[in-house]
Amino acid sequence: MPEKPLISIVDDDESVREATTGLMRSLGFAAQAYASAEQFLASDQVAGTACLIVDVNMPGTTGLELYSRLAALGQSIPTIVITAYPDESTRARALNAGIVCYLCKPFGEAELRACICSALARERRDDSSP
Questions:
Q1: Nearest to 115 by CA among 30, 50, 71
Q2: Sequence-ordered list of residues with C-beta below 8 angstroms from that of 9, at least 6 positions apart, any chain
Q3: DSSP label of 27
Q4: pLDDT value at position 1?
Q5: pTM for the complete prediction?
Q6: Cβ burial, residue 85 (10 Å; 0-12/13-18/19+)
């Protein structure tokens, strides 16, 4: 039986982390939550993460900065950005940088599930590239 894809959630809001982690597990994914970008980067799960769900506005390293740092390290993890403070210029910057989805809190389960499917499809395409 194949291993469940690991979804890593990085959000400084504990209630969002817990709710998103629970939702990912109920949808059949393995899920791991982190309170900050630094905590995620220090973990041993970076390379095994199939999809990253990250908050835009966090103390320290922001979600977009984390995405850029991972890319600079050669870790192209399909990423979904979530935010309680939608901003069109941030959205455009995120999507132009390669972010899979930009979701505004509160988002629905179907919306997030569609983004996860897109992210995992992107990961599979990247894995099969020569």
A1: 50
A2: 17, 20, 21, 24, 31, 32, 33, 34, 53, 54
A3: T
A4: 45
A5: 0.93
A6: exposed
Average pLDDT over residues 27-51: 97
Measured distance CA(99)–CA(70) in Å, rounded: 12
Architecture of domain 6-128: 3-Layer(aba) Sandwich (3.40)
User: What tokens were used for 118?
Assistant: 């897109």
- Does 127 have pLDDT greater than 60? no
> What token pair was written down for 99?
């972010």
| Averaged pLDDT of the chain | 92
78-106 pLDDT, tens digit per residue, is: 999 999 999 999 999 999 999 999 999 99
Quick: pLDDT tens for 52-78: 999 999 999 999 999 999 999 999 999
Decide: 59 and 16 in contact? Cβ < 8 Å: no
**In angstroms, what CA-CA distances link 18 with 21, 33, 34, 54, 73?**
5, 8, 10, 13, 28
Dist CA 41 CA 104 (whole Å): 24
Residue written as token pair 């939550």: 33
